[in-house]
Amino acid sequence: MDTITTLLAKLPAHTLPEYYIWLYIVTNLLWFALFCFGKQAARNRYQRLEHSLNLELERRRKVYELKICQYEDYCHELEAFRLRHQNDYQKVFLPLFTEFNNRYQAAEAAEDTAAASLATLWFSGEIQKVATATSTELHILDKQTAELKLSAADDVVEILLDIQQLYQNLLVVSGEQMNQLVAITLSKDYEAVKFMAEKLQQVGSQLQQSSEQLMQAIRRDLLNF
């Protein structure tokens, strides 16, 4: 301001009005340029913010869709596994046990030790087939559980781990009981077969309860996302 005043003092008096006019024009042009620059800068900031928000919304949408697909795949596989094995005792264990018992009793009645050994080997082979198939299915569930743990809510992860442990327990219990069927046949302790069924039903009931808890936890996770 002092510089402008000094310059004005050096100018001839008749040039002052014209100078003020130009000074006014230049000042307004500068203000207008500053306003346009500020407006453009604000527009750029707004566009960057809008772009950032759109990217975040798109990211969250993709994550949400991924979570839904993962949950659907896991729940579908879990339900399919449950349906395939909910009647294992009647459809798998008892038929194998009955067939083995018939073969073994026939061999024993005929005092044919070779036939008895073959019956035992056959039964052991069938047990191994069942255990291998079940283990393969559980491996698929374990893989999906590991994938879900990366994005699922904490309470969902906790239930997933519980279900994973229950299925491992089911596999162990089933394997142990299938192996005990030979000893049960030899000892003719058929009450033990009933106990085996009750134990399997107990684990199955726990799995059903955990599955229902999982469905509720998944709904909460998706609603709160």
Describe the structure.
This protein is mostly helical. The protein has 2 domains: 2-50; 68-223, no CATH class. It has 6 helices and no strands. It has helices at 2-10, 16-85, 88-109, 113-148, 154-187, 191-223. Helix 3 (88-109) packs antiparallel against helix 4, helix 4 packs antiparallel against helix 5 (154-187) and helix 5 packs antiparallel against helix 6. The longest helix has 70 residues, at 16-85. The two termini are 59 Å apart. The mean pLDDT is 77.
Q: So how many helices?
A: 6
The span between the termini is 59 Å
Helix content: over 70%
Q: Element order, helices and strands?
A: HHHHHH
Q: How many distinct domains?
A: 2
Average predicted local confidence, pLDDT: 77
Gross morphology is: rod-shaped
Rg calculated over all Cα atoms: 39 Å
* Quaternary structure type: single chain
Number of strands: 0
Content-based structural category: mainly alpha
Q: What's the main sheet like?
A: none
Catalogue the unreliable spans.
none
Instruction: Provide the β-strand percentage band.
Output: under 5%
